[in-house]
Structure to design on (471 residues):
């Protein structure tokens, strides 16, 4: 039997179940999931994927699949699978053109592909956010006054050029030339736009942010494809890059930057009004619905919203509320451990090994290993997240909502990234910590009282993980 710890063996087992190297259009990953996009979904053996040792779950997007492997394992397996695909294509001299996945609704497929644009940027957002938190802490304490400005420069570099990275990734994901997508998106952050004055208006470098970069790069992909069809082959190498930069670049200056800037401002105002006016109700809904979104992989579609809020306001006030879903999941898992573990030692092992990841905000091992297979605990975990989000929303309505400087982690891992606006970091941490405690308690109470009924004698099989045990 293959050792599930070995990412190379896991990748080798995954490749034929995904339809082989020729069927893989693109490959990406996040912290816990492998995200292959395939040309023909009919070639994917989804049931065998779900039964594969080490696979916690499979989300079928009709061509854009998500294979849940767990923290750390997803990145190593993705690298191994990428090498296998490259080797297979080199051996057969295959060079498939990237294209949209077939078989899923266009709206859902587009949403997933937009999420794929931002998923590879998360490590940089997390890293820069932690550096910014360190710089802010040193500045508040008055320590190392010469080091704090340097740390600020290190943390701000990526955010000042994030539009370029978004443009690059957009072109890459949607079948264009990445450097041309980045070149068009770079117009947004170029200081020269302040002297353009289109239609008598004044533009500011960075106006439109990631939304403008996304739109500009999508337009560049469309223009490039049109040029590839219409420009004579002898002139393609010269005219296609020039027109791909020129036409979308002018459209960006003369319309997209302004429109995306207005949309970004509207998004910020809507979020502020939602949290200040909706308060507990808004937090209750957001905290309760986020866990099903994580299960379906739709939570990544919120990354552009978080990135826009961070670029505009310096923080995203949505992330702490959504993080309460993970708190409800942890509380539910603890209740399952106490109520069912006596008769089901495999549940005890699963909860014990998956709980540390859950506390750090990585919920898939608990979702796919504990609550979802048992049924009711998944619902009561959502109840816990709803109460945690409602509590945090209520405190935000009474005072100033807390936010996060970066996206990616939640749970305990979010503490260093918290920003309280007018509040100090200690108060922001106290508010967030209180929300976690409410989520833990509500998830535990709901699961202990209602979530374990009727499942004491239910059959249960703990899924294996690439770490060699339960998730």
């Amino acid at each position: 039997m293959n050792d599930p710890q070995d990412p190379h063996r896991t990748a080798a087992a995954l490749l034929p179940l995904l339809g082989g190297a020729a069927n893989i259009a693109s490959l990406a990953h996040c912290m816990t999931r492998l995200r292959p996009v395939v040309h023909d979904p009919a070639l994917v053996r989804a049931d065998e994927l779900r039964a594969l040792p080490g696979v916690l779950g499979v989300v079928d997007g009709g061509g854009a699949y998500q294979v849940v492997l767990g923290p750390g394992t997803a990145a190593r397996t993705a690298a191994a699978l990428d090498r296998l695909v490259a080797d297979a294509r080199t051996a057969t001299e295959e060079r498939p053109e990237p294209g949209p996945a077939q078989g899923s609704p266009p709206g859902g497929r587009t949403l997933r592909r937009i999420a794929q644009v931002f998923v590879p940027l998360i490590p940089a957002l997390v890293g820069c956010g932690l550096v910014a938190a360190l710089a802010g802490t040193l500045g508040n304490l008055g320590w190392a006054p010469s080091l704090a400005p340097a740390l600020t420069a290190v943390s701000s570099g990526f955010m000042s050029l994030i539009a370029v990275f978004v443009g690059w990734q957009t072109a890459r994901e949607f079948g264009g030339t990445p450097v041309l997508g980045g070149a068009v998106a770079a117009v947004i952050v170029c200081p020269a736009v302040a002297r353009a004055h289109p239609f008598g208006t004044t533009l500011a470098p960075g106006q439109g942010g990631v939304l403008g970069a996304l739109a500009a790069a999508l337009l560049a992909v469309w223009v490039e494809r049109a040029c590839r069809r219409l420009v004579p082959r002898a002139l393609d190498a010269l005219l296609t890059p020039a027109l791909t930069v020129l036409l979308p670049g002018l459209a960006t200056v003369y319309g997209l930057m302004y429109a995306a800037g207005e949309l970004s401002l509207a998004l910020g105002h809507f979020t502020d009004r939602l949290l200040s006016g909706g308060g507990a109700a808004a937090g209750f809904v957001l905290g309760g619905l986020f866990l099903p979104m994580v299960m379906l992989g739709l939570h990544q579609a919120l990354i552009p919203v978080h990135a826009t809020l961070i670029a505009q306001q310096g923080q995203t006030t949505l992330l702490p509320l959504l993080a309460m879903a993970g708190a409800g999941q942890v509380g539910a898992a603890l209740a399952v451990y106490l109520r069912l573990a006596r008769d089901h030692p495999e549940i005890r092992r699963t909860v014990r090994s998956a709980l540390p990841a859950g506390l750090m905000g990585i919920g898939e091992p608990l979702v796919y290993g504990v609550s979802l297979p048992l049924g009711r605990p998944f619902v009561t975990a959502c109840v816990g997240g709803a109460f945690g989000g409602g509590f945090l929303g209520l405190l935000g309505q009474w005072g100033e909502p807390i936010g996060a400087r970066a996206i990616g982690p939640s749970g305990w891992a979010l503490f260093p990234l918290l920003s309280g606006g007018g509040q100090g970091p200690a108060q922001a941490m106290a508010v967030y910590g209180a929300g976690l405690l409410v989520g833990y308690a509500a998830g535990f109470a709901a699961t202990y009282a209602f979530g374990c009924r009727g499942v004491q004698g239910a059959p249960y099989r703990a899924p294996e993980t690439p770490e060699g045990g339960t998730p």
In short: The chain has three domains: 7-103, 161-274, 279-451. The first helix runs from residue 7 to 17. Residues 105 and 465 are 31 Å apart (CA to CA). The two ends are 19 Å apart (CA to CA).
